[in-house]
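Person: Show me a sequence?

Helper:
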Amino acid sequence: MFAGLDLGGTKIQAVLVDVEGKVVSQCRHATPQQGGPQVIIEELFATLQEVTRMVNLEPSALAGVGVGAPGAVDPVAGVLLQAGNLPGWHGPHPLAEILSKKAKVPVFLGNDVQVAVMAEARLGAGRSYRSMLGVWWGTGVGGGIYLDGRRWTGRGAAGEIGHIVVRRGGAKCSCGRRGCMEAYAGRGAMELKARKAVARGEKTRLFELMESQGKDRLTSGVWMKALKQEDGLAERLIARAVRMLGAGIASAVNLLDVEAVIIGGGLGTRLGEPYVERIIQAMHPHLFVSQRPPDVRLSALGELSGAIGAALLSEPPAAGTSSHRSSRSVKGEV
């Protein structure tokens, strides 16, 4: 049995899967907002303990653990190099090695969206395609690429579609640069924009809804409720996000010419098919070959795609193939 941990800016989703990829248990914890890498890794371990305890196992009984983490990773060394959407995470940190020593089991590390797209390619909405682009719309905007039936990771940071520049000299992104698609479409960036609008006196129910749900951030569910109530600010910020997603995704399609685009992530999954259609419409004017657009599909695995994909990192490679996975055991060997 394998475990997968999907580490995000606001939540840690854990699953246990069997050898056929079937989910046998799952749980979710909040991502610590203070304390940096040490506290976040402690919470990863606590989440792993809970998901294994649900089926009367200890983490050490697993065949392996995979972690999907946001930002740039070194999958060979098991190091999370940069993660702008994780609170207090600054600089490289050997996440896989530290967690492996706690769990007493091999740990494998990958980019969160890359592994989610891998899960969709093998088990979900991408099964019938040889090439595809995954776009995960959540706290940030991440991406993953499949070419000729294989995952393309580049040097560890391939697919970071959120950092395609959609407006030169535009809004400042969490990465420190300006004009990135994530600076307009990421949920974190939209919340900052909403707070500035409220400070200027603009009316919105976004923060009232947030407080009524006991949240301290504008979650995907809060945005969904605000849209259902036809909140003007929410509608305007989401519309702006869709326009930028359309331009950025179309630019990536023009470069890669993939068969399909899969839309996932917390916000993408929550808003669902109606917003997939809106993204398609926003893409169309920017496509070089508009007569032959890619198929655009909603994630079939939903909010579990990242955790399932992380679990797949733990599977042994097929005979005769090489692997770029990293395993840090309790003794520290690779």
Observations:
- Residues 129-300 form a domain with the Nucleotidyltransferase; domain 5 fold (CATH 3.30.420.40).
- The CA atoms of residues 251 and 286 lie 7 Å apart.
- The radius of gyration is 19 Å.
